[in-house]
Structure formats: structure tokens, C-alpha cells
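@channel anyone free to eyeball this complex?
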Amino acid sequence: MSTRLASGGRLLDRSKAVDFTFNGKRMRGFAGDTLASALLANGQTLVGRSFKYHRPRGIVASGAEEPNALVNLGQGPRHEPNQRATTTELFDGLRATSQNHWPSLEFDVGVINNYASRFLPAGFYYKTFMAPRPAWKHVFEPFIRQSAGLGKAPKDRDADIYEHFYAHVDVLVIGGGIAGLAAARQAGAAGARVLLIEQTAHWGGRAPVDGAEIDGMPAAEWVNDTVEALEAEENIRLRRRCMGAGIYDHGYVMAYERLGDHDPQEGLPRHRLWKIRAKQVVTATGAIERPLSFAGNDLPGVMLAGAIRDYVVNWGVSPGDRTVVVTNNDDAYRTALALKQAGLEVPAIIDARPAPASPLIQAARDLGIKVETGRAVAKVKGRARVEGVAVSAQAGEGAALQDITCDAVAMSGGWSPVVHLWSHCGGKLVWDEENAHFRPDVARPPIGADGAGFVRAAGIANGAMGTRDVLADADAQGRAAALACGHKRRKKTAPSAAAEEAAPLEPVWLMPQGAGAALRAKMWLDFQNDVKVSDVQLAAREGFESVEHTKRYTTLGMATDQGKLSNINGLAVLSQSLNEEIPQVGTTTFRPPYTPISMGAIAGEARGAIFQPLRRTPMHDWHAENGAYWEPVGHWRRPYCYQRPGESVEEAVQREVRNTRENLGLLDASTLGKILVKGADAGKFLDMMHTNMMSTLKPGRCRYGLMCTENGFLTDDGVVARIDDETFLCHTTTGGADRIHAHMEEWLQTEWWDWKVWTANLTEQYAQVAVVGPKAREVLDLMGGMDLSAGALPFMGWADGQIGDFKVRVYRISFSGELSFEIAVDAHRGRAFWDALLEAGAGFGVMPYGTEALHIMRAEKGFIMIGDETDGTVIPQDLGLDWAISKKKTDYLGKRAQERTHMTDPDRWKLVGLETLDGSVLPDGAYATAPDSNANGQRNVQGRVTSTYHSPTLNRGIAMGLVKHGPDRMGEVLEFPRTDGGKAAVKAKIVSPVFYDPDGEKQNV
Amino acid sequence: MKRYSAFAIAREALRGHTGWDRAWGSPQPKDRYDVVIIGAGGHGLATAYYLGKNHGVKNVAILEKGWLGGGNTGRNTTIIRSNYLQDASAAIYEKSRSLYETLSQDLNYNVMFSPRGVMMLAQTQHEIRGYRRTAHANALQGVATEFIGPQRVKELCPIINIDGPRYPVLGALWQPRGGTARHDAVAWGYARACSAMGMHVIQKCEVTGVKTEGGKVTGVATTRGDIACGKLGIVVAGHSGVVAEMAGFRLPVESVALQALVSEPIKPCMDVVVMANTVHGYMSQSDKGEMVIGGGADGYNNYTQRGSFHHIEETVRALVETFPMISRLKMLRQWGGIVDMTGDRSPILSKTPVEGVFINCGWGTGGFKAIPGSGWGFAELMAKGASPLTAEFGLERFREGRFIDESVAAGVAH
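replying in thread with the prediction:
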């Protein structure tokens, strides 16, 4: 039974009690506890259920590598699944519940999978559930989905907020143990700007627990002194609770700071994602202890030896009264000593090595601990928790030599450097025979843009073992990192520690070595995903020889700990099964993040209304106040129409069209792209960008232009105005502005870099209003200041001038077929100008109109719309726009493409108008069928609807479409099947696409 | 090949699972095969399988540089759908989807095809029109899709936020028989079936050269020796340009890294696949409980199968907006796969300038869903010289301007 010790716990503040609940049970811990240490202190050894077999699970580790102790934390909008108890700092009012069981943690029906486990080996689901066929979707899969998964899904919108930070540093040191501190100290001393981050709340890592001495003082003291000294340096920044999450190309590093998890508060960010650009990164990320593979190693009460030491020393927790230590290396002896010093019993140390000798081993013996060498734990006894161990010879098959009663087992299979961050960006590994682990291959680091390595591992993360070597290596790496950034100030003396004499580790991948099938089926490799030694052996037998195949087939290392405990052990079992060396089998790929990071932190501040930038025209607020029904267009929002009280969207649109045709309409056209093109070669440039000839345009005149991609497809259109000899203003569609500007720049920068042309996107510099309708000129004349008669400003002309109080540029262009002036004013005058037009227009029946009225009016006129008539497969020739394609030019973008055989094929579909026989509106996107089917059994088609509306002007449905040989088939009737039920196909007649004022009498007045 | 079944598992359970055969062999390369396929990913293995099954061509080797299924087959987000706009695309993807329906039974390997339904959200007026058009096209192509309203979207996927302040959900294109499958199992199932037909799946065998005589292929050079062949199929996705160069021709293909990620597993909360093109992201929940999330492709060409961060951020932001409950989930793992993109974003299944050499590439971001259909059509093309499924996907289309452009129907990677 785990419990709190009467004294001890270097991280605890026993004067501050902290209340929390677990599965509704009230419990008490102390300030400084993690949820894991507090649970153990309250005797809660059972904390969860495993993924596949629903076996009872207890805490096994003390840090980020914990696979078992995952809990649901919090409630409602603060509910969070899969929170690691070992990295959750205790706070008052914390509410945790255990996961993956029904109806309760203690009694879980799902455990039936455990009893059936012989029928559920690795990958069994690939071999069954295939008949009857519908059963997979309706029976088997729902069952598997329900029994898999871990924590409960949150239901609500997250109540917390998140933010991003940006940092640029010379040297980023990841890990605040003694190695990280030593590296930061030396890099800082050289003059580098240093950021040191540590994932836990405490500096110093394991050294204070292990009882090392540095520079003649206890490690804890050295850590405090060093932190204090570093904090005093202005070129060194330190951050706790900040984990290095991922290393990316070019020294880009993500770090994850947990600001509020230990102390939740309203209004403050919970997590902060750091985006760091570092010239050099030092990964002082420590090492993770490996479990040993013996039968029953997954029972609650079996823990990593280092973790047990942490709980005793850091948190004053006894994981058990009688703890058997089982190991293949010296380090676990420190756990035995710590337990003994805390007054707890250690009935035996089971050491798999035949005859190890070292001062640590002697110290254990001196304390009266029985050391059994050459021995193994054959199996752990107990059902829901440890009740004892059966001891056998390591060399044998597991015949029990003796039973030892105990309630906890401390296991150590050696330590693996944390090489994850080193590996994220391509750093390679070497296999270290002596310590039986992979460590960074310093000859093959992640490479930066300059061809040199930009990541250095330091300390035990670099394979240095023992305090002395760790400090020496970290000190050297810190210095080297600073030098690589060009900082060479005088060096500080390296911290020193005494050499430690240790007996060599002996790799133990199976315990005992000759364990039979029954034992191997109880040896867990991956505790969360229930992958056993026998599963990996089965995978190897079935031909899953690549380590990636084995991982994917058995799910080894795919759990939330991403194999931090299981990978090396699994790999060793696989390589033994294949009779290959471990380095030949290789590792799976380490991927970011190091441990999971919240989606909220990744998304940052950008959520809700500010999820994306919202672009507003100067008149935006007026629209909002006057019933705008919004339509998102790019990052803008444009009024689709302005709804009046009691009016439907459709009614509003029809009203706006009618009023504009009869009286006066206003359109906020500010969102249209406005790109200034200037320079001696501007005309030549636009001749290449457009299908039309733009260089011959006279200043003061406008021309409608088409732009194609290099593949010949129509990509954008708009009116080009020539301002002076060297200056053009190119209008684009709203959605196309940024894209077209980039398109122009790409050609200027990559192909025609020597042309004298400059571009600027002026879209937001102007507010632009289309004043449209038969009374357009009257209202502008009323405002006064400028002669807008047809003689002074003819159709397709523009002029600068004054209207009322406003300095304006007036374009005499029309996208509606009505008399129309598009008037640009400086953006800051936009709203005032809009208000002035409304005021002046009051007597003329002025009404603003939205994008849908715009669409209908242009369709009535037969004008094409980019994105409706075009879709990336349409060329101008398809749309009857040959008149806008210059025959005189030798070249323009898309010209050669348009000469390809398929582009000149007379069978291409061409633009026509479509009129339903019954006056109804053709369905959007409907296809006209042709007889028979094609070779793939699809119905043949001969055309499609590209735009379709109810025209208030004609009071009937009108449409535009692309039809095979369309212009030659006027009057022919096509059939368009519906998709909205069993109704008969809609019949429509091919007509001219110009439904309204074909001779242009309305616009050219 | 011993059949897999519940009975077989029970039988093996009683003898400690010691009696299972290898799922596929580990053969030594022969000197010559009738057909050599380069690339033991899903498409290469499916090609070999249908060569044997449909055309009786069984003297086949499938050569793999690394481990089978280790490229994009093992890296994608497992979505299967066929709601494409253009006829040629809809034909091959629907063929593929319909083959997925019975693939587990055909292969005697549970690939866990789960027709849970795929929806593509319409969040602008423009998308509504686009998806209505696709629904019309699909109806004539024999692809079952419908345009559904926002309330139906909410019913099918309760965790979705249809009233988002920036991009409310206005409807969706819904394909009820689209879904997901277990990606690795697709490669493993085909590999096992190929092996059972006597074909050689040869891993750790990198092709280093293509041998020709008089403009006709005669074999390949590999790290395990020369192998002669009558016909050669190149099915290597991201590295197509590299292998084509060995055969002496160039491809209109660029290789870029496509980004993806998964969350930690949670209990089931989402039974359908949702794609949101306006905000750029898509998500489904795997049978393990992870939310499987697809991002965009990096904006630069490269061959490193490595995760980068900017697309992850963009995608997660979009999905937190679309599914607010995921904010408190955690990203477990991110990765990248190299996809081969053509100029029109449609694949190439084609003869090549070298007689006897055929190429299957350019699947870009959408290859997984196409595996059975691609294999079916490409096998027919290799065996008979032509296939209605592949007729429109020839290399010559770039010269003729006969593009198959789906961009109007698919704004983002899929």
C-alpha cells in the first residue's frame, strides 16, 4: 500500500494542504505534489485501465514518459482527457477521473478482453470480422471504437485562452537539469543570447534526487546557485514549465509553456506556444529509464526504479512498504538506498548480472540489503496489484527458486538518452554497445542552411554517463554552441564532480533469458497499448520484419507516450527474433511533438471572430447597421443584400435589382482589386499579362481586360485604366487581388526582372462606390463640382475631379448595363462619401445593393463572372471573348497554350444563354444530357449551367451555360436532369447570353 | 495461403499462435520476370494483384527500396471518396471506392473499409454552387452524393460548429458511402494476396537503373542485382521524377511534402469524415480514437518526409474553429509524406516514350482512396495496352491541353 511518509519530500510544502478529488473521492495532498505523487500518497495505486485488454494500471513513471496514469481533468468547458498525472501539478479543487472503463475503475466489464486475450493477439482484427460484410460497419467497428479510445471527448467550447510568443536567440538550451544549466552557463559566459527552457516546474533534473556532489556541494545547492547566477545575466533568459516540443528546419523550434495548468485563472492564457529561431540548439534532455520484460511487469505496484526514488525523495511518498528492486545496472541501487534511508524495507535486490561489484553495490550490502546476483524476477504475483515476486535464475527458463512477499517492485533496464529532439530534423543515431542504448551520432547532426550542424546534444542526452562526464560534456557543448554563433568571450571554469565507479550494465531483453511462451505472453512492452513480447515475436514470425511494420502491426509505441518506455525493449525483442543486430533493425522515426501539446496552443489567439483577419471596407459599419446579409469573399465580407424587416433574402435581392434598373443603386465596390503598374515598360508588361493590347490604351481611357494562366485558362478579369504614359491601374476581382498581384510579381521577379516595371496593390487605399441607374448622373450633378456629361466623360473614360466636398476619380464603366459611374475616393473619406451619396440620392429613390443583385444584373447583360463561367478549365475563346484577344500581339501569357489541339478543338463547350421553357430557374450546376453512356458507364453530357437566376427585370429564370457547339444551336432545347427528387428534367432553350439591352443603349447615355 | 478467419484465430490460440504463416514471402530475386513493378506501395501492389487476378499475369516482381507500404500508403489520412467533378476522375475513384466495398473479402484481409460517410462543407456561396454542380455531375456519373443543408450536417456530425462567426456552415456535399480504411492493411492485404499468387514482393531492393535496347525496356539494375523484364511499371509516387529520369524521360511532376497529424485517442465522438475547404482542414476519428487531421502541402519542392509547422498551425486553427471541442485535445504526432503533383492535379497512368515502360504517378494528395481503382486500370493498361479507366490520364494530355482539373471541386489537399 502506497502512503505518505512522515517526513521528507524536497519539493513539498507540508504547511500547505491541497484538496482534490479522484473519481469523486476527496483526497488531500500538499503544495508541490504532482497529481501522481498525491494519488500515491493517498494509497491510490490503481489509476486506469489499459487500451486493449482493460487491465488494471498503476503509475509506473514520474515524468512525461508515463503511459498509464492518464486522467480526465476538469469539467464542462475545462474538461480535458488524457492528462498525465505525473506532469499535472496539484492545485486546490482539482477534479480528476480515471479513463477507459465501464462501469467503474475497480470493476470494468471490458476486462473480458483480458480473459480472451489469447484470442486477441497482435493484429487479430486483420484476420477476422470480415463476414458478413455489413457487420463490420454496423457491429464490429462500433464495438471496437467504443472499447478503444481513452479519455472522454470534451463537449464544449474551450473556456481558456492561448497565445503565441516569438523569440530569436543565439543558443536555445532545452532541458534545465544540471547539463542544461551547465551548457547555458558556458554559452552565456561567451556572450551568446541564451534561452534555457525546462519542462517541469523545477530546475536540476535528477541530480538532486541522485545525491550527486558538484563543485564540492550537494547538487541541489549547486543548482540553486547556478540558477540564481544565470537569472542575474541579462543575456540569459530562463523559463520553467516550458517544453521543447519540436525542432524544424533552419533552427525553428516550437516550445510549449504551460502557464495556467498548475494554477488555473480566468482571463490569463493557459498555454503559450513559443516559436523560436535559434542559431544553435543544445538538447540537454536527459534520459528515460527502461522497464524490464518479466511476466506481470504491468501490475500496479511495478514501477521504474528511478520513479520510485523520485516519489520517495521529492514527494515523501512510499510506493510500498516492501519494495523488491530488480535491475541490470547500478543505478537502481540508489533507489534501494533511498528506500532504506526512508525507513522502508527492501527485501532484496534482484540483479540479473552474474557478479557485479561496485561501491554502490557494496553500500547496499552494508545497509543489510540482500543482493541476489544472476537472478531474475520470473513473475510478479498478484491480480490487481503486486503481492510478491517469484525469483529464478536469469540464465534459466523461469523455474522459481524462491518467492518474496512485497507490495512494490522497482525495475531498471538501463537508461536511454532522450534523442527525440535531436532526431526531429534529421539527426542520426548510433548504437552504444556498452550502455545498450541509442545516442546521437555527433558526426551526423541536423544540418542547417549553411551545411553545418545546428543541434548539439549535451549530458546524458548525448550518452555521457555519470555526473562528472555529464557536466564536462554539457560545458563543452555550451561553449561550442556559442562559438558557432560567433561568441568567443572568455570561458568560465567547468563545474566539476568526482568520478563514480560503476559496474557495467548488462543488457537484459527477456527476464529470465529462456522464458517460455506462457511467461512471454505476460511480459508487457507497451503498457498502454497492451503489446507483449509474444506479440512482437508473432509479428516477426509473420514477416513484419521492418521495425515500422512491427510497430504498425502490433501498435507498439503508438500510444500516447509514443514508445518512450517501450521502443528500445520492443526493438531488442524484434532483433532477437530476426537474428539481427539492434542497429541493423533500426528505430522508428521520432516525430514532433516530444509530448503531446494542446490544439488550443497551436491555434493560439486566432479563434472565433478573429479566427482569420477580417477585412473591412470604410463603409462596413454602415452595411452592418442596415441589414447586410453577409457573404464571405476572400477575407472580406460583402453584403449579399440588405434585408429589410419582414423581407426574405430573395425578396431583398429582387427589390435591389428592380430599383437599380429603375432608379438609383449604390454598390460598395471598394473590395475590387486595384493594382498600380508603373514604369517605362508598364505597357509592354500588361500586353504580356493580358490577352488584350494595353500598350495602345490612351491616358484617360479604360479597357476591359482578361488575364490567363500560362496554361491558357482564364484566371481573372477587370478594367484597366491608363493614368499616364507610364502608369496603369488594373482592377481585379475581389477574390483575385492578392493572387493577381503575386502573379504579376512572380513574372517580374523571375522572368522579366530587367523590365522597368513596379507594382503596388492599392486596393485598400481607395473606397470605391458604383453609382448605378438611370438617375446616376442626376444625383452626381446635384452634388455638383464636375461635368459628367457624356461629352465630357464618355463611356469607358475616366477623370479626376471634385464631387461635392470630395476629391474623386470617376470611371465611366458599367457591370450592370445601366448608366454607371464608379467613383474612387481616398479610403478615409469613403464613409462620408457614401453618406453624402445616400443623402443626395434620397430624392431619387437611392438604394444600396449587394453582390447578388450585382450578379443578376451582370447575367442579364450576359457579362461573365470569374468563378462562375470560369473554373480553371475555361479559356476566353469558350466564352465568346475572342474580341478581347489581340490578334496583333506576338505573345501573351497563355497564347501558346491556347494553340494546343484540345484548346482549338471545335467540340469545346461554348457560352450561350439558356431559357427554361416554363420560365422556372434552372438548378445551379445542372448538366445537359446527351444520348447514351461512355465507356465507363457514365451518362454522356453536352453542356452545363454556369450561372442561373430569377431575373426580376424579365420576370423569369435566366441562365448562362457552356454547351457543345452552343452558339451554332440557337433555339435548340436541352434537358437538364434535377437532383432534388424524382421530377422530370428541366427543358431549356439555347438563346443569346445577352438578355437585357443588347445594344447597350442604357449604359451608353 | 492459409485463410484468415475467426475459426483460424481460435485454432491458433490453442497452440500459442505458433502456426501462422508469413503474411508474404521473402524471396530472392529471379533473373527475369514478365512484369516488374517498381514500388511496393498500395498502387504498385494493387497493380500486381489485378495483373494476376484479372489478366493471368503472375510472373511478377514488385521491387521496394524500403519496406512495403512505407511511403504515402502508410502516411495518409485514409479517406476514401469519389465525389469528383470531372468524368474521368469520378470514373476511376468510384471504381476504386466500389472495389474497397468488398476488398476485405477479396483479399481475405480485413482492411476495415468503413463507409461512414464523407462530407465537404460549403461555407461560401461559391462553394454551394460548386458542390451543387458536383452533385449534378455525380448523379450522371453513377456516384451517390447529395447536397445537404446545415441542420443535416449537424445531425450527422454533432461536434461541428455550424454557426461559426466567420464562416457559418451553409451546407455540404455528402457522400454516404465514402469513408475510411486502415491504410497499412491495404498494402499488407495486397502484398499477402500477391505473394499467395506466387509473385515476388522484394523489399530492401532499390532500383538504380532502367535498361533499354532500341527504345524498348529490357530490365532494371538494382542493389540486389540486375533483373530482366518484359514490361516495367513505375509506381513510386513522390520519387517518380527520379525513376523516370533513369528510364530517360521527364515528367510534368513536382514533389512536395504534405502535412498531417493525429490527436491523442479519445472515446468516439465523430462518426463521419468532414472536409472544410474554405478554412483548409479535414478530420475524421480513427477506430483507435485518434482524431486524424490533414493539412496542406508545403510551398516548396523537397524530398524530406518531415513535418513542418506552418501548415499544422493553419490547419489546427481552422479545425478548432470548425470543431471547438478539439481545443482541449492534444496533438500526438505530426508527419509529412512526399506527394507528386501534376499541373492539373490529376494523376498520370500512361504509356511512356520507352516501349514497355508504363508510369502510374501524380496522385498528389489523393492517392490512398484510388489504390484499388488505380491498380485495376493500370493493370489493364499494362496487360492490354489500353483501359477505359486510364484513357484520359495519358501523358500526352499536357501537350494537347486536355487537362482534368478538379480545382473547382477540391480547394485543398485531400
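from a first look: The longest strand of chain A covers residues 269-283.
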